[in-house]
Request: fold
Amino acid sequence: MNRCHAIKALLLLLATQLFAPAGAATAEVEKTFTRHCAECHGADRLGGMGPALLPENLRRLRRGMAQQMISEGRAATQMPAYGGTLSAAQIEALVDYIYTPLATVPEWGLDAIRASRKIHLEASALSDKPVYHADPLNLFLVVELEDHHATVLDGDSFTPLDRFATPFAVHGGPKYSPDGRFVYLASRDGWIRKYDMYNLKIVADVRAGINTRNVAISGDGRYLMVGNYLPHNVVILDARDLSPLQLIPTRDEHGTSSRVSAVYTAPPRGSFIVALKDLPEVWEIPYHEKATALPVYRGPMHDYRAESGEESLADTRDFPVRRIRLEDYLDDFFFDRDYRHLIGASRNGKGQVINLTVGQRIAELELQGMPHLGSGITWSYQGRDVLATPNLKEGTVTIIDMQNWQTIKTLKTLGPGFFMRSHDNSRYAWVDVFFGKERDAVHIIDKEKLAIVKTLRPAPGKTSAHVEFTRDGSHALLSIWDKEGAVIVYDANTLQEVTRLPMRKPSGKYNVYNKTRYEGGTSH
Ligand code: DHE
Reply:
C-alpha cells in the first residue's frame, strides 16, 4: 500500500468511526419514532391526530416538558405514557429528534390543503338565529391553552354557553365574521377551525399550513388570509367553506423567501396587510375590487401567479400584491385607527411609522421594541389620538401623540408587559406585567391623567395577563394564566372584583362587539 492509499484508508476508518455511531443512533431513533409516534404525529413529523413535532411548532414547549410528556403521557388526550416502555436514553433521543429541524422546508400546497378540509356541518343543518337568549354581540370566546379548548361566555350574565375542543395550540386572536355569527381560530400547526356562534357548533376545519402565525378575515367577511412560517406563504381561503382559493409564496423578486410574521385586515383600505419576517418589505393585498384604486398609490402590482405557476381556483377575485419596500425589517406592528399608518418596531428595536398610502417611513419613534404584535392601543387624549404600548426591553409604557409622533409620557411599570387593553367607554387602560417576578401584577392607567392609578395582584404568585372589555365597556375580564386558572370579571369603573370563573390556563378572550366594531382599545 503506498502512502497515499494509506492516508485514504485512515481517513475512511476515521469517517466510519466518527459517523457510523451517529448514523446508527439516527436510524435507531427514527425506528422508535416510527413504532411509537408516527401513527398520531405523522411519519414526516408534520402532525396527524396529534400535533406536528417540529422545532418551529414546539417553540412554546420546553424540552424538559417534552421529556415529561413522553414519559408520563398527557392527561385528557390520547398521548400515552412511554416511561415504562422506553429507556431514559431513548426518550432523550426522541426529544433531540423532534427539536431537530427538517432538512428541507416541507411542501404543503393547494392539493394538500384541499385534501385536509373537513366539513362537519352543512349550512342547511344550521339555524340562522342564535339558539340561546343571550346578546350574540356581547359574547366572549375564551381560549384555554391548558387542555386546548375554548369557552363561549355570555358577557352579561358571565355564564358559559358552550366549551369546545380547539386544534392543538391555538395562537393569536380568533377572528369573527362581520355579523359575529362565525369565528375562525388558527393553531400553530396550521389548522383553521370555523365555529358557529349562533348554533354553538364546529362547522369546518382545514389545514392551511404546517406552522402558521395567524389568520385575518376580510372586512366583508368573504375571505380569510392565513400567514405561515412553514411553508413560506400566505393562503387565501373562502370563508364560507374554508376551501383554498390562492396560495401566494412570500418571495422577493430575486427568489429569496420569507416567513410571514402576521397578516392583518385593513377594512377601510379593502385589503390585507402582510408582515414579512425575513424581507425588508410589507405587502398589501387588496381583497376588494375598489381597493385596487388605492388612494395616491400608482406603483407596480406584482403578478405572483405568473411567477409561482400556482393554479388559481375558480374564484372571481384576483389578489395582486403591492410590495412596500422598507429601509429595515419590521418585526411587528399595528395600525392607526383609519389604517393610513403602520406603527412598528424594526429589528434594531427602533420604532417606525410607515405611511401606507405613499409607502414610506415618515417618522421614527422612541420605542424600546414592542413585546408582542398588536400590543398597542389608541385613545383620544385632549382632543387628539394617542397610542400607548408596553416595551420589550424595559418595564415602561410609552404614550405617543399620533399627530406629531412625539412621546408625551413614559410610565414606569413593574416589568415589561405583553398586552394592553381599554375601551372607548372606560377611563382606564389595563397593562399586564408579563415578564419577571412581578408577573402577578396588572397596572391600571388613567387615560386622562396619563398615570398609573392602581396596581392589582388578583392571584399572588400567578401570572395575570390579557384584559378584554364587555361590549359597553362596563366590565373588564382578566386571565389568571395558570393550569388551574380563572377569568376574573371586574367592574371597570370601581375596579372591584365581580366574579371569578375557573378556567384552564385561559389566554386571550375576545368580545364579539368590540372585535367586529374595531374598538380602539383592543386588538383587531
Ligand atoms: Fe402571540 C397574538 C406573535 C408569543 C399569546 N401573537 C399574536 C399575534 C401575533 C403574535 C402575530 C397577532 C395575531 C392575531 O391576533 O391575529 N406571539 C407572537 C410572537 O411572535 C411571539 C412573541 C413568539 C411566538 O412564539 O410566536 C408570541 N403569544 C406568544 C405567547 O407566548 C403567548 C403569551 C402564549 C401563546 O399562546 O403562545 C401569546 N398572542 C397571544 C395571544 C394573542 C396573540 C393571546 C391574541 C391577543 C389579542 O388580544 O388579540
User: Anything to note?
Assistant: Residues 59-60, 145, 171-173, 213-214, 262, 372-374, 418, 466, 507-508, 523 surround heme D (CB under 6 Å). Residues 108-325 form a domain with the Methanol Dehydrogenase; Chain A fold (CATH 2.140.10.20). Helices lie at 3-36, 38-41, 63-72, 88-98, 110-116, 304-308, 512-516. The chain has three domains: 19-98, 108-325, 369-524.
